[in-house]
Amino acid sequence: MTTEQPGSGGFPAVRPRRLRQHPVLRDLARETQVSAHDFILPLFVRPGRSIKKEIASMPGNFQLSTDRLVEEVGADRLAAAILEPVQGEGGFVVPPAAFVQGVAAYCRERGILLIADEIQTGFYRTGRRFGVEHFDVTPDLMALAKSIADGLPLAAVIGRSDLMDAIPPGGLGTTYGGNPVACAAALAVIEVLERESAGARARALGARLLERFRAWQAMWELIGDVRGLGAMVAMELVTDRRTREPAAEATNVIVAEALREGLVLVKAGAGKNIVRFLGPLAITDDELAEGLQILERAFSRVCTAVSGSR
Q1: Cross-strand bridge partners of residue 246
Q2: Fewer CB within 10 Å, N side or C side of the chain?
Q3: Do 188 and 63 share a domain, yes or no?
Q4: Which pTM value belongs to this model?
Q5: pLDDT digit of tens for each residue in the chain (310 aa)?
Q6: Are residues 80 and 157 in the same domain?
């Protein structure tokens, strides 16, 4: 997508919801004078519908999104579609393979580039080198960062040679690009991940986490859903399993309770009610067991308090 003004011949920019709440995007929108669109490609969450229900309706939900996109913009004017193989900040939502393949087919048939955002899913977090590999889809471009250099500031874009070679010399530059120390770290990280079978470790961690989280789900009504792929595992906390109303307040209390014992948790999801596992693949079994014990105690205290107030 470009930042050219409407009518200038460039591709239009599509704005996500809550744009006004983000100062950088808000200023960009004001400068470019783009119009607001109340949808996000590829997932359009309809009013009154939970993310899980929308996922369950795929690929029909994708058709609804693309129909609206075509109506507003036009498929022939779309530069690219960006897809997270597993939603990160959205709460570790794992799409059906048919949905991801449907997105890829839609893009391929219309000459739209498919960009896989592998910033969170890349480098074996899902059990494979890249998350998109689970869906038998080959993107045109991939965005990489985070685990690529084990904490050193580095990001990368990889893709089809004809696309990468299309930029003329000097057409793409950055002050800190190609930092030699960060690049050396990335090469070392990739070597270690492959040598130590990081994919197998991620799958083992995921299996252990899913088993424990589902056991808690059977104990406590607060946990409405458990989901994940590889070591990307999350719990969705709800006030009512039927309505799936987000239990944001209870989530805040659990995060605070865990922090008191030294366990740092990060909330996610539109309702701020998703608790995710974000431990490194190098975590030891003892460290994982200690973290799970702290989290279980936090849940036990909060769920006991909730039950007692009813």
Answers
A1: 238
A2: C
A3: yes
A4: 0.77
A5: 333 333 333 433 333 333 333 343 344 344 434 333 333 444 444 444 454 555 555 555 556 666 666 666 676 778 888 999 999 998 999 988 988 998 899 889 888 899 999 999 999 999 999 999 999 999 999 999 999 998 899 999 999 999 999 988 888 888 888 899 999 999 999 999 999 999 999 999 999 999 999 999 999 999 999 999 999 999 999 999 999 999 999 999 999 999 999 999 989 998 999 999 988 999 999 999 999 999 999 999 999 755 555 5
A6: yes
Q: Are residues 190 and 215 in the same domain?
A: no
- What backbone torsions phi and psi does residue 246 show, to the nearest 5 degrees? -60, 135
- Residue 144 falls inside a structural domain: yes
Domain boundary among 170, 195, 220: 195
| Domain end (from 195, 210, 236) | 195
The domain tally of the chain equals: 2
CB atoms within 10 A of CB 150: 17
Residues 99, 229, 112, 137: is their CA dihedral positive or negative? negative
Name the token pair of 113. 């580039």
Structure token pair of residue 211: 């088993």
